[in-house]
Structure formats: C-alpha cells, structure tokens
Amino acid sequence: MTNLNLSSGFVSGATSKGNELSILSFEVANTIVKGSTLMHSLSRRSIRQLNDVVLPSEGVQLLVSTDMDELLSIVADDKRKELQVFTGEVVRFGNQCKDPQWHYLDRFIEKYRREPTPQKQLREEAELMMQQLITLVQYTAELYHELHTLDIIEQDYQHKRLEDGKSNASQKGNGLTILAAELKIQKKIVRNLKKKSLWSRCLDEVMDKLVDIALFLNREIDNIFGNADPDSEKKQSLGGKPRLGPAGLDLHYANIILQIDSIVARSSSMPPNARDMLYQNLPPNIKFSLRSKIQSFHVKEQLTVTEIKAEMEKTLQWLVPVATITAKAHHGFGWVGEWANAGSESNRKSIVSADVIQIETLHHADKQKSEAYILELVLWLNYLVAQSKATSNGGRLRSLLKSPDCSSLDSVDRVNIYQ
Question: Which domain of life is it from (predicted)?
Fold first, then answer.
C-alpha cells in the first residue's frame, strides 16, 4: 500500500479483516471521483487554462467581473468549498472505521495543513494514489452495471421457473436451462469484479489514501491561491451583487438562453407554442421591463432576417457557451452508478477528468447584467420573428409600436409578444 507518510500520529498497518466496503463501495467511489475532479482542476495545465482562457473570456468578464484578483478569489473560494465537501465525506468514512486512528480526522487535517512539507513530492505521490483509486473506481462502476444485469437475469429466471411449474412437461422447453446458464455466467462476472473493485477492499486501507490526498489538496489550494481570508474584499464586493447561483436561478436562466438560441436558429419554422413557452419562462422582472421596452424598441433602418441574426449573434456567440456549460454542470453525472450505466469507456473517463469549473458557468453571473442581456435578446427575437413572418408572407413588417399583440402583455395567464 502506497503511503505518503504524512500521518504524524497515524500509523499505517494491517487492516482489519472482515471489514470489506461491500455496498458502501459505491458511495466511496463517488467521493473518490470528487477528489479526482478537484485534483485535476488544480493541475498546472488546468490553472494555466484558467488564467489564459477562462478568466479573460467574454462570458466571465461581462457577467462576473473584470477584476482578475476578484475572479481568482472567487475561484479559490469555490475550490475550498469543493475541498470541504470532499474532506467532509472522508471524515465521515473515517468515523465508520473500526480503527480509532481514523476518527475525528477534521481536527488532524486542520492541524497538519499548517506544517511545512515538500509539495512536489506530495503531488507526485498523491497523483499516483489517485490513479490507483480511480482504477478501483472504474471496476466498481462496472460492478454496479453488472449487478443490475444480474438482478434482471435473476428475475427472468424466477419468472420462467414459476411459468414452468404451472406447465406440463411437454410445454416446458429448454428456456429455464438457458437462463440458468446465463445466471451462472453473470454471477461469475460479478464475483470477479467484486475482487477487482472497491467492494472487496477494507475501508481502513482506502482511508489511508484518502486522508493523504485530502492533506495534499489542502496544501495545493493554499499554494496556488494563497491562504484563505474570510474578510477579503471579494466577499464584501459580492455581498452587494445578487448572483444567479446563490439565488438558484443559474440553470433556469441557462435554459432561457438556450431556448432563445433554438428559436433564432429556427425562426421561420419554430412552432408558436415554443415562443409562448419562452415568454412564460421569463422571470417576472424581465416580463415587467419587456412591457415598456417593447414599445420603445426600434432600429434606424429595417433589417433583413440575416442581419437581425447577425446582430443577435454578437451576444449569443459568447452567452450560449456559458449557458451550455451551466446545463452540463447541473446535469453531469455525479453518482458513480449513473456513469457506470452510461456504459461507454469515454463517458467514464470524461467524469474522472471533468474540466468544468463553476466560474465559467452562470453560477457567479451578476443577476442584473444577465437579465439585461436576456431582455435585449428577447426584444431582438420579437423583431426577428416578426420580420421572418413578414418575409415568408411576402408582406411588409408591421410597426412593433402598433402591434396588436403588444396589448396582450397585460394578460397574466397567457402572453404572446410575437406577431
């Protein structure tokens, strides 16, 4: 067993037998994936990508902040929260161990993080440990999938046996024999995977690695971002700016942006109910602003459908990727069994090396700025749909100001802002 020898007062030795993880292995695997994702995000390559690509991107600069120090402070805070979740789970597993040396690890980790240790050696050894654990996680994911298959075969076998019990000998056939053979093979597959996966590992054995990884991650975050400052200017500045994530609006706003993009792409053929659904999904304050803004919205000269789309694309080209990443972050696989059931090797690898970080989503986006961009897009979208209809009918575009549909904006139950 690899050991970083970090555990002053924590002695690695023989693990207690009969203390296999068994069903707990799936929960432990999920924690390992969280640790792996965090470790990957702190790699030199990921930090270089953060500084050179993510933070200077239009989405971050226009929606979050243009102050690079503030942005780095936000990322650091996010990483510490991710670490807190990971460490909390490690501590919880430690308290379930028979060996009392793993109990109350939170006190030990907090104390140890302040002691000087060569970080380069820690990184190399921690990465090696994580590779070993991820190999076990991949076998554990396969086990999850094969256990599910075993359950289906067992049900089919029992169902067939009951059927045959009610039939006479001439009607039975060899279906039960085939299922029995399949069941035997599947049980062997499951047995082999249990031996290769976390299922057959002792919790104490896995804890030895998880603790060392948690200690490394604590140090690495401090080395990259500096020590945490609870009274930082960043926290004071964010306090006065409502953000989408803390308000629980990031996924909702992402879906609105993706709806707008879909309608723009199919402006001449999109069913009217799709546009109605978009309006119904708009937040109340955007609807309220729309009532007055739509009356005053105008362009200096009439634009073609292509020109309107090009105008909207100036915002959509940077806003849609942010919305897409936000949806991906919310709908991504978080539980090892889910990506096991996905079945493909590429899916499994993508979870282990997930590179989505919170600051490139809508989580930290300024609520007021986000709503301003959405409102502008909806106004342009109204103009685009009206122009598309006029073009397809061979007629002229009616004035938005005199549009009879605008009067229906006062309706509460159903509103159609489109002509």
Answer: Eukaryota
